[in-house]
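Contributing new records

If you add data, match the layout below exactly. Sequence lines come first and carry their own label; structure lines follow with theirs. Keep one chain per record. Anything else will be rejected by the validation script.
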Amino acid sequence: MKRTAVAVSALVLLLPLSACGGDAGAGNGSTVTVTVGYQSRTINTVTAGTLLRSLGYFEKQLASLGDGVTYKVVWQDYATGAPITAQMTAGKIDIGSMGDVPLLINAARGKQLNRPTHLVSVTGYNLRGGLNTIVTAPGSRLTSLKDLKGKKISTSVGSAADGTLVRALQRAGIDPGHDIEKLNQQPAVGASALAAGSADALSQFVAWPGLLVRQGKAKALYDGARLNLPTFHGVTAREDFAERRPAVLEAFLKAQAQATDYLNGHPVTAAEKVAEATGLPAEVVYLYNGAHGIATFGPAVKPRLVSALKQDVAILKSAKLTGDVDVDSFVDDRYVRKALGASYAKQLAATPPAAASEVWPKGSARTRTFKSPAELLRYVAAHRDTVRAAYVPDATTGTSWFADKAVWVADGGKLLPFVAPATAQAYADRHDGARVIAYADALERAA
């Protein structure tokens, strides 16, 4: 696992006050180290990880506490949520961020090992489930979930994407425990397996599906938003740390709120900052984190998200990854309520922005929105050499996708984009005269 320790030398990790958020009695003149586990490339956690770290808001909040303590922040970077949970239950990470299914494992492991943790805030979410996608190789003949029966599918077991895979297969009448061969692989390994042909499909979380599709190394098979079940990423904190250092946790949550405001107010700049820190293409980051991207960012712990979390428990139990999980006792929004104060109610009531077609012109720090996908296509056709990226919402789920990677349907005078071929074909089958067309044809028709 790649680990990055920032703002502190390796020697500081050996100091008595550095572990577990510092000594409970640390006071004036003391040094306390706070360790944050995050996933730099899981870009729906950026307001509690990559973007937050680059902006330095947490360190600034800690400096403003005025309690006479010197705070050192260690940022540890991981590929998935599982190792963050392992480090938290070992008392080595104080605050972590991860997806919804890993959060449940975090809750279960914490209780099992007598190191209880709590969900204290949310980072990015999609109320329909669009954060996870199943993809296949570009030349694959697989076009629907039913085609996956008997195939090898790569995913990270216990991840949010694994949860989407299990639910999607079940709805398609496929037993995920017997009708497929599941390969438990880290995202990068799964991507290599797909490219090598040793995996027929890959189910992963952000930003892997969008990245592979953008690079021409995969095509979408299933849009997770078809499940119409919320998916999200959140922040978890060790209970003992929160009780010992409530002001530090509140400082983190205030900083997260600041990072959220920055992302929502400067989506293009935020995407470029995350791209610079992670090596991901900014166009891929914007697909998820943009003004009309797949994710909506807000720290409030919404009841709909908690309800979805409860439904995920059955998935983990069926996979024998956990037993029962008491979600109500795991969720603790007291700290974020205090951190956000009067604005928390507004955050709780906030709704995702309406889906829109959007173009990112080359050399611009702003994007352009259009009333319809056809209008966007008309613009792209007239400005082919100056378009950095173009995004359109799936006609049925609203999931944003790259216009040139979408599956297009011509229905009379309408041009409709879809993330996956099965969804596009299903629409065409229900509408007389509608048919699937190539992107080049869609551009020509729009022009």
